[in-house]
Amino acid sequence: MRFVVRLFFGTVAGAILLLAVAGNANAQVPPSVGLKPSSGPAGSSFTISWNGFPTCRIINFFWAGTSLGSKVAPATSGSFPTAVPAGAKPGSYTVTATCTSQKETASGTFVVTGVTTTTPPPVTTTPVTPPPATTTPTRPGTTTTPPTTTTTPPTTTTTPPSSTTPTTPGTPATTSSTEPKPGELVLDRPSVQPGDELSASGKGCEPSRMVTLTSDGMEVGSAYADASGAFTAPVEFTRIEAGRHTVIAECGVRLTGAVDQVVTRSSGGQTGTLVILVFFVLAGMTAVRFR
């Protein structure tokens, strides 16, 4: 009878341990927003990353109350590439991510910086004074030929002013290792593993057109083409599946590229076996202690 009672208490202790582990696993992360970079001039590109929207499927993004667009959110975290409005003046602005279904909002601050123009100092030249003319006295009855005075003009050296190259709005910070040709989509890696960064570059889009990147029917990235129709955007697969995947860029025209996904075997499946083993060890220790 005592053995049965001890075994019962051991079982209860194990069940409490399992509930505690399950409660920690299901803890919800509060919504948050990150900006990369968090400062730059008007028209520059930046990326909004989000986390903590577990049941949200569409997230709307705003710049100081003005819509930047929306994105389907198939996961609890992700990123949204966009650009600072061209008319934004220097100062701090609030960037907000809102999930309508959850009625939850997270925000961050972006600082718009001014463009500094450097004016070179003026070049000062000193005029060269010609030497005085020398007159040779002549004897009576002698014809004097006046000497010829040659004046060398001063040499003026002009230093050309330094020029600053303006940053083209809508051009992402990252570039592909291979320059794409018109009508071509280039991926900076031939193969990736889960968690690796991947970037796509293309040329031949309609100028200033939004570029949507998809793979297997799922959106994996977006960006804006610059004035020449070129773009560079990060690619993030929402589903891990080994094999070759075709990436399609829609930007008024269709560009295609391919990349291989390499998946290695994970050891995470041993967690359930470890919890069951801990349960039986605790039950056995409790039975031996009360014997």
TrEMBL record:
Instruction: Cite the record's Pro residues compositional bias ranges.
Output: 119-134
State the superkingdom.
Bacteria
Q: Where is the composition biased (Low complexity)?
A: 135-178
- Keywords linked to the UniProt accession: Membrane, Signal, Transmembrane, Transmembrane helix
Record region (Disordered):
113-206
TM region positions:
271-290
Q: Which residues form the signal peptide?
A: 1-27
Q: What is this protein called?
A: Bacterial Ig-like domain-containing protein
- Native species of this protein? Amycolatopsis camponoti
